[in-house]
Design goal:
The chain is α/β, with parallel strands linked by helices and 457 residues long. It has one domain: Aldolase class I (TIM Barrel). The chain contains 15 helices and 13 strands. α4 links the parallel β3 and β4. α8 packs across α10 and α9 crosses α10. The protein is globular and about 65 Å long. The two termini are 41 Å apart. 45% of the residues are buried. The chain binds iron/sulfur cluster (SF4). Iron/sulfur cluster binds next to α12 and α13. The site of iron/sulfur cluster has 16 residues, from α12 and α13. This is Molybdenum cofactor biosynthesis protein A. It comes from Ruegeria atlantica. Keywords: Iron, Iron-sulfur, Metal-binding, S-adenosyl-L-methionine.
């Protein structure tokens, strides 16, 4: 069956649906269950999930040494738009409007730009945020201009030495690439994020890289992701030198200031560490330095929240909180003003910007911790509904062959990653069928064969 461009009215969500009243309750329960719902916790209190990945292709134009994809990834077909629309509808039914949807892969820019435009429009229509997660190679200015016009909110560039880009021998040399990518986004109204995998090959350069990020007022969000033994990448276990503490300290050296990673929490502390700074002209000041004040503000905001379904209108909550707690609002305002004034000479050299710094600690595929999986804030959309990214990474092949159901005007159709188009029945082939590997998917075949040989020996 040939796939045609779907509209939401012709596509119904498959998988689990949210049936409760407060969409934050499941995450809050998970965090409470493992003692992580303290005074600084924002997840489950202000939002039902941090983000959901929508994998629009398993293909990639790089082959990172710490890639989380499966060896069989390059043997698969891209999901038709109707499947992706159905997964978007499922994300929306679970988490409601406001959730950040990461258009990811593989590298999503290998899809036709028209497909990505359609997805951005649909995400905007559903009231969710879209983020393009890309290595940037194909994300030219013209490409990003089209997506911005279609409603793309954020672009996250992944650039680091695990990608083995030709001609670059260090993270410092890769700053040329990072600068060029920032230029591509100028004036498009996109929020710019950067992702870096922290591994044995760049831990010594982490402080210098953090300083580079601090000095880029265009960058709103900086994420450092610690090496994890999962997926097809050739590097495996994490070196002892890479711990949450060592990464936090190296980043603080780069920002030349303490970052107070223990003040506010985004999910489980073993998964995520979060800091927030104001920057200007090559200086940074942490805005989370006042722990008691921050936690009082979190509590007051929580009391001021009147949403019943987990979709918080932040501005509305802040206004209501300020009306109910004028003294606390004044204290918070003065604290922010002090942070800005502490930027000192930096104020003369550049604009004041806020930047978030995030350290993400994915788990190894064979060492998943139940409490972290149960309180995960980073989900992937699968055929059976959202799933923790760590769990998904550990079971990728199983999810690639799970059939997606798409309900259209002429009844249900089915798809899995082993077939190019929707089928009439759910009995789809799986990826181990040798007849399913045309030449263009030879790369995946060879990888899978190599992996099988390794597993046998
Ligand atoms: S993806 Fe893994 S490391 Fe990240 S929040 Fe979820 S369980 Fe934690």
């Amino acid at each position: 069956m040939k796939d045609t461009a779907p509209t939401l009215s012709s596509v119904k969500p498959a998988g689990r649906k949210f049936t409760g009243t407060d969409r934050r309750a499941p995450l809050r329960g998970g965090l409470q269950g493992c003692g992580e719902y303290g005074a600084g916790q924002t997840a489950g209190r202000f939002y039902p999930i941090a983000c959901v990945a929508l994998e629009v292709t398993q293909r990639c134009n790089l082959d990172c040494t710490l890639c989380y994809l499966s060896d069989r990834a390059e043997m698969t077909y891209d999901p038709p738009l109707s499947v992706l629309f159905a997964r978007l509808a499922t994300i929306h039914s679970h988490y409601g409007p406001g959730v950040s949807v990461q258009l990811t892969g593989g590298d999503p820019t290998l899809r036709k730009v028209e497909d990505l435009e359609a997805l951005c429009r649909e995400i905007r229509r559903l009231g969710m945020r879209s983020c393009l997660m890309t290595n940037g190679i194909r994300a030219s200015r013209a490409f990003l201009t089209r997506l911005a016009a279609a409603g793309l909110d954020d672009v996250a560039f992944h650039v680091d030495m695990t990608q083995e880009r030709k001609g670059f021998n260090s993270e410092t040399e890769l700053n040329v690439v990072r600068r060029a990518y920032i230029r591509h986004t100028r004036g498009l109204g996109l929020r710019v994020l950067f992702n870096t995998t922290v591994f044995g090959g760049n831990i010594a350069e982490l402080s210098a890289l953090a300083r580079f990020m601090r000095d880029r007022p265009e960058v709103a969000f900086v994420s450092f992701q610690m090496q994890a033994d999962t997926g097809r990448g050739v590097l495996r276990g994490r070196p002892d030198a890479i711990t949450q503490d060592s990464v936090m300290r190296a980043v603080e050296v780069g920002y030349e200031t303490p970052l107070h990673f223990d003040t506010a929490a985004v999910g489980h502390a073993k998964c995520n560490r979060y800091a927030s700074v104001v920057t200007a002209g090559g200086r940074a000041v942490s805005v989370l330095s006042a722990k008691r004040l921050t936690q009082k503000v979190i509590a007051a905001l929580s009391r001021a929240d009147q949403s019943t379904d987990g979709h918080i209108d932040t501005r509305d909550s802040v206004r209501r909180m300020a009306r109910r707690n004028p003294f606390l609002a004044l204290q918070a305002g003065l604290h922010l003003l002090k942070c800005v004034l502490r930027l000192g000479r930096g104020l003369l050299r550049g604009p004041v910007r806020r930047q978030s710094v995030f350290i993400h600690n994915f788990m190894a595929a064979d060492a998943l911790e139940d409490d972290r999986c149960a309180s995960c804030v980073f989900m992937v959309a699968t055929a059976n509904g959202p799933l923790s990214m760590c769990v998904h990474n550990a079971q990728r092949d199983m999810h690639l062959v799970a059939p997606d159901r798409v309900d259209g005007p002429s009844g249900p159709s089915w798809w899995n990653a082993a077939v190019p188009h929707l089928s009439a029945g759910p009995d789809l082939p799986d990826l181990s069928d040798p007849g399913l590997a045309p030449l263009k998917r030879l790369k995946g075949q060879m990888r899978a064969t190599r992996r099988n040989q390794k597993d046998v020996s």
